[in-house]
Design brief:
The relative contact order is 0.15. α2 runs parallel beside α3. This protein has 170 residues and is of the alpha+beta class. The termini are far apart. It is globular. It has 3 helices and 10 strands.
């Protein structure tokens, strides 16, 4: 299934792949990848600030030389680097540390996930259906945001967003 919505100042493209779990013929899950561009939707305006407002910061740890704040009994972690914000939320601390290592390994220190982006956000959340990852970024300091989200690993998401090239409209 695919879906395309377009207007003068926004677009949304969605691809869904339906599959059946082994041994559970009635249970269906969907792998969905969505890409959109336009003004930042209200629910994404300040996801990290909003998260920090509702969750009490419990402390900060050094992880691979980076200061990482932790919340929710060490299941949620936030860090910032090179104008980007990162949020990892997992079922337990060990899983969260494993995901953080994976995210940091795909985005080497001192680099950004999307070439030419002035700021951005990466979110990786562990769910019962697997890991969902998303990236949001802007080339113009927030006027236009590009968002890619899906049920995918941080490695797959990073591979896709690193391959994106900004096309000059002139």
């Amino acid at each position: 299934m695919s879906k395309l919505e377009a207007s003068k100042d926004r677009y949304l493209f969605q691809i869904s792949r339906q599959k059946v779990r082994d041994g559970q013929a009635r249970t269906l899950t969907f792998d969905v990848m969505t890409m959109s561009a336009g003004t930042l939707p209200r629910y994404r305006k300040q996801p990290f600030s909003t998260f920090e407002a509702f969750e009490i910061k419990e402390g900060t740890i050094k992880f691979n030389g980076v200061d990482v704040d932790y919340f929710a009994n060490k299941r949620a972690f936030i860090w910032k680097a090179n104008g980007w914000e990162y949020l990892v939320w997992a079922k337990n601390t060990n899983n969260a540390f494993h995901i953080i290592k994976r995210v940091m390994a795909t985005i080497p220190k001192g680099t950004i996930p999307v070439n030419g982006a002035t700021k951005g956000q990466i979110t990786v959340i562990e769910t019962n259906e697997g890991v969902s990852s998303d990236a949001g970024w802007s080339y113009d300091n927030g006027k236009t945001w590009y968002i890619m989200t899906g049920r995918t690993t941080p490695e797959q998401l990073t591979k896709i967003v690193k391959s994106l090239v900004k096309v000059d409209k002139r």
